[in-house]
Amino acid sequence: MLPSPLPPISLPDELDDLSLFRRAAAVEFHPNHKPKYRLGSTNSKPKIAFLFLTNSDIQFAPLWEKFFFGDKSNRNLYTIYIHVDPTVRTKFKSPGGVFSEHRIIPAKETHRGSATLISAARRLLANALLDDPSNAYFTLISQHCIPLHSFQFFYNTIFETDSHQVAELRHLKYKSYIEIISKDPNLWTRYIARGKKVMLSEVPFNKFRVGSQFFTLTRHHALKVIQERRLWKKFMRPCLRSQPCYPEEHYFPTFLSMEDPKGCTGYTLTNVNWTDTVNGHPHTYHPPEVSPKLIYKLRRSNFVQPYMFARKFSPDCLNPLMNIADDVIFRD
Description:
Layout: H1 11-28, E1 47-54, H2 61-69, E2 78-84, E3 103-104, H3 116-131, E4 135-142, E5 146-147, H4 151-158, E6 176-179, H5 187-191, E7 216-218, H6 219-227, H7 232-235, H8 251-259, E8 264-266, E9 270-272, H9 292-299, E10 309-311, H10 318-323, H11 325-329
Parallel strand pairs: 1-2, 1-4, 2-3, 6-8, 9-10
Antiparallel strand pairs: 4-7, 5-10
């Protein structure tokens, strides 16, 4: 007997999100909402917005503190936003640290295998767009993610600079780092998870894509994602089967592949090990596996840039990771 499908997103929640997305899109084009960064100024460079999507405390907060605090000059180069499932009690105690300055955004309950995870990611994007016009890139992070390089290495890599001079964004052709896969043995099964013809005519099978849930989007693409309505009407529909239905791995790759394929790299910067997947979950690393050798291995990529982040790590990996943080992880 098949499990009952998860309930659809409620109309009040959907209307609330639409109001937020409209406000974010409207503010984006307001003349007073302009980036404040200038060439040669350490206080006005473009920023990276880190979007933490979690249903618990940030398990690796001390490691992320080291990532962000590696150089005090980094303080003006990032912003942090956290979407916490409101049904979960959290603390986020970090006196004087980066997570004491975070922004917890108004959140809604999320369910694995449902479009609520898409909504949560879009909610994070909209709030980050509204909050700071200097947010130029938007990186989605899970509670099980760890950094594989220093913040400065990541920043210099995505802004394509080896110096502290960052060119004005309008003169650069930045791309979004999002995995887009068109050939997958389970592609058809995923496509018909809501019914054989449900996705038509907006999403024909030859346009359907899969990819990683975690991405780094340009501001241009983040804005397009929160403005999108046509495909969302299909992807928000509940799945008939939970197992092949991972909407957050389908919606973003499909939409951006259809909207602007040349503006996407087609690969993610987050390394995930799917060699021994269980019930749709990737391999989870445990303390005996943590070593310098593992970090070096996880960094290696077949693409232009190395991997910058990795998942999925169990919470008890924190101590062994902290033991190699300074000498391995943040030594680029």
